[in-house]
Specification:
47% strand, 9-stranded mixed β-sheet, 20 strands, 5-stranded antiparallel β-sheet
C-alpha cells in the first residue's frame, strides 16, 4: 500500500501533467463536433480506457442565430462526441468542470486546487461575446483575438497559438485583452490561454461538497483557416497511454 506522502506526490505529478493539457473542439467536414483532451500541438489525444476517463463528461452548447442548444458529450475511444455541428456563423463552447481536485503546497500549507478546462470552436473571425468563465473569442480582424475573464477583458495574459505541425507562437494581451497573430497557413489553429484564480470556494462532487483554494482555468479557441499556404502535416501522434504513465 502506498504511504500518504507517496500518494500525494503521485497525485501532484498527475495534476502537473494534466495542467499541460487542454481540451479543444474538433469538427471534421460533414461530421458532428467532438471534444478532445490532450495536447493539440503534439497531436496527442488522450484515450479511454486511460487518462480521458479522468476528464469527466463535458457540457457543451451550440451558439447560432436560432439560439442556444445545450448537450453533454458522449464518450468515445478518443474524446467526447457532441450531437451537433457548427455551420458558417455558428460557434460551439464546452467546459469540463469535473476533473478531480488535486493537492498542492504553499509554504507549509497543504491546499487543494481545481483544474477547469474549457474550449470554443468558431467558424469565422467575426467578433463574439464571451460566454465561458475564461474565454478566447475573435475580435473581428484577421488574426486578432480577445481574452475575457468573468466577462471582462483580461490584460497581460499569455496566449499561445499552435498548429497541428507543432508550430507555436506566444504573445501577451494588451490592456483590452487583445492579441494579434499571423496565420499564414490553411488548416486548424488552436489558441490557448490559462489564468489562475486564487479565490477559494466549494464545488459539488460525486460524494458531496468539495472545498478548493484556487482554480486553474485553461481555455482554447479552435479556428479552421480556409485559405493561405498549404497546411503543414501534423506531427506523428505519440502513444497517449505511454505518455500518461511517464
Amino acid at each position: 500500500m502506498k504511504s500518504s506522502a507517496s500518494l500525494a506526490f503521485a497525485l501532484m505529478a498527475f495534476a502537473t501533467a494534466a495542467h499541460s493539457h487542454q481540451i479543444w473542439i474538433e469538427q471534421a467536414p460533414g461530421q458532428n463536433a467532438s471534444v478532445r483532451f490532450g495536447e493539440f500541438a503534439e497531436n496527442l489525444r488522450e484515450v479511454s480506457p486511460g487518462t480521458l476517463d479522468k476528464l469527466g463528461v463535458p457540457s457543451a452548447a451550440l451558439l447560432s442565430a436560432k439560439g442556444e442548444q445545450a448537450a453533454d458529450g458522449v464518450k468515445t475511444g478518443d474524446g467526447y462526441t457532441l450531437p451537433f455541428q457548427a455551420k458558417r456563423g455558428d460557434a460551439i463552447v464546452a467546459q469540463a468542470p469535473h476533473y478531480p481536485l488535486y493537492p498542492f503546497k504553499r509554504g507549509d500549507q497543504q491546499l487543494t486546487g481545481w483544474y477547469f478546462p474549457a474550449a470554443r470552436l468558431v467558424t469565422d473571425l467575426a467578433p463574439q461575446a464571451p460566454k465561458l468563465v475564461l474565454d478566447v473569442v475573435p475580435a473581428g480582424k484577421a488574426g486578432e483575438l480577445q481574452v475575457f475573464f468573468r466577462g471582462k477583458p483580461l490584460p497581460k495574459a499569455k496566449v499561445a497559438l499552435v498548429t497541428q505541425s507543432g508550430w507555436a507562437k506566444e504573445k501577451q494581451t494588451d490592456e483590452q485583452g487583445k492579441v494579434a497573430f499571423d496565420m499564414p497557413w490553411q488548416g486548424v489553429y488552436v489558441a490557448e490561454v490559462s489564468h489562475q484564480d486564487e479565490t477559494p470556494g466549494e464545488r459539488q462532487g460525486q460524494a458531496g461538497p468539495e472545498r478548493y483554494h484556487r482554480v486553474d482555468y485553461v481555455s482554447t479557441l479552435t479556428y479552421v483557416k480556409p485559405d493561405g499556404l498549404p497546411a503543414v502535416p501534423a506531427i506523428p501522434a505519440p502513444n497517449a497511454d505511454k505518455k500518461a504513465k511517464q
